[in-house]
């Protein structure tokens, strides 16, 4: 129940706040921090009840730590936006909100393919941030390089996911401990995943 609520809130926050009249009111920051505090409290309340499974989503103690770090870093980003960003602030807020929502979902999933899709989808708001607020004259080139190299580096990982599915017929991360591969094949699979994470 808590997991479902956190995932729902993390996706509803960017949509409701950035397109509603709340954004332009003097209560915007109070509403924002209240919702962030709620997102912060809900994972903490489930620390003593980890192992909650809902469809392809799951919370482990490690994923809860990553979610809490995501929320804290998002709050830092909102403070930086308030003092450093003066153009297209609403769009910047939406990008940060979207990164937070995708990250929380990413750290909650237990399906390897959903993890891959979310990991790649998070590049879109980063791409928009680089183009919209990057250094003038270099922002478009930097964004294209960032997008291209990250996606090219992800192809071996996608190929490895398909191989794992063919062999195991299951992409649940929890059940991938005993894969029917030799030691050299496992090392090759590990290399494809590691190279993607280094490129990203």
Protein described:
- The chain has 200 residues and is mostly helical.
- The chain folds into two domains: 1-110; 112-200.
- Helix content is 74%, strand content 2%.
- The chain has a two-stranded antiparallel sheet.
Short description:
The protein is an all-alpha fold and 200 residues long. The protein contains 8 helices and 2 strands, in the order ααββαααααα.
List the helices and strands and how they pair.
Blueprint: H1 2-19, H2 28-45, E1 53-54, E2 57-58, H3 61-84, H4 89-108, H5 112-121, H6 123-133, H7 139-168, H8 183-199
Antiparallel strand pairs: 1-2
Please write the string of helix (H) and strand (E) elements.
HHEEHHHHHH
Main sheet makeup? 2 strands, antiparallel
Number of strands: 2
SSE-based structural type: mainly alpha
Q: Specify the helix fraction band.
A: over 70%
How many domains would you count in the coordinates? Answer: 2
| Unreliable spans | none
Number of distinct helices: 8
Arithmetic mean of pLDDT: 79
N- and C-termini, Cα separation:
32 Å
Strand neighbour order, sheet with most strands: 1-2
Q: What fraction strand?
A: under 5%
* Rg from Cα: 19 Å
The gross shape turns out to be flat
Entry keywords:
single chain, mainly alpha, flat, 200 residues, 8 helices, 2 domains, two-stranded antiparallel ribbon, 2% strand
């Amino acid at each position: 129940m808590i997991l479902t609520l956190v995932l729902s809130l993390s996706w509803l926050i960017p949509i409701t706040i950035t397109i509603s009249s709340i954004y332009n009111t003097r209560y915007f920051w109070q509403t924002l921090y209240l919702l962030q505090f709620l997102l912060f409290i809900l994972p903490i309340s489930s620390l003593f009840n980890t192992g909650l499974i809902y469809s392809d989503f799951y919370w482990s103690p490690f994923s809860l730590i990553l979610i809490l770090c995501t929320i804290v870093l998002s709050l830092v980003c909102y403070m930086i936006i308030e003092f450093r960003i003066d153009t297209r602030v609403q769009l910047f807020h939406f990008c940060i909100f979207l990164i937070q929502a995708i990250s929380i979902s990413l750290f909650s999933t237990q399906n390897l393919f959903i993890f891959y899709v979310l990991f790649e989808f998070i590049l879109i708001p980063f791409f928009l941030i680089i183009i919209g607020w990057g250094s003038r004259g270099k922002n478009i080139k930097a964004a294209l390089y960032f997008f291209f190299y990250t996606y090219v580096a992800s192809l071996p990982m996608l190929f490895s996911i398909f191989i794992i599915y063919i062999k195991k017929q299951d992409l649940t991360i929890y059940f991938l401990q005993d894969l029917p591969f030799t030691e050299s094949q496992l090392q090759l699979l590990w290399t494809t995943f590691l190279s993607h994470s280094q490129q990203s």
